[in-house]
Amino acid sequence: MSSEDKVSPYHARSGSETADTLADVLEHAAAREQAAHKRAAPKKQPKWMLPLGINLGVFAVYLLIAPPAWVIVDPIEGPPVAAQTESLRLGMYMQIQRIDAYRLANGRLPDVLEDAGSVVVSGAEYRRMGVDQYQLVASVGDSVVIYDSTESANDFVGDAANRLRGG
Hints:
Elements: H1 15-38, H2 49-65, H3 81-106, E1 125-128, E2 134-140, E3 143-148, H4 153-157, H5 160-165
Antiparallel strand pairs: 1-2, 2-3
C-alpha cells in the first residue's frame, strides 16, 4: 500500500455503500423467510407399507408357531465316542499320575480322590481295593472305562500317552 492510497475506516463508508449492504442483507433475510414457508411437509408413508408390514408380521408368527423343516437347524453332533473315550483315558491317566504322586509322598493311597489334588475327570469314581490297590471308573455315553492299579498306566492309555508327552 502506498502513501497515495486513501484509506478510510470501515465506519466511514459512504451512505450509498451502506444502503446497498443493508438492502442485500434484507433481501437475503426475505429469501430465507420465503424458503422456510415453502418447506415441504414430511412425506406420507407409501400405501404399500401397511400390507407389507402385516404380511411380514403374519409370516413371523407362522415361523414361531409352526416352523417348516427348512427353518429347523440340525444340532451339531459332538465328537465320536472313540475320541471322547480317548480323551477320558487321557484325563484318567493324569488323575492316576496324581494318585501315584500322593502315594509316593505319603506312603499310602488317598482316602478320597480329592486328597490327591483337584479332580481332573469329573464324574470319575475312585475305589480303594485294599492297601495298595485302587480302581478308577468313568463313563462316556454307554461305554464304561475302568482302570485297575494292577495294570500299567501307560498300557491303559496306549499310544495317547506318547502324544501327551509330546513324543
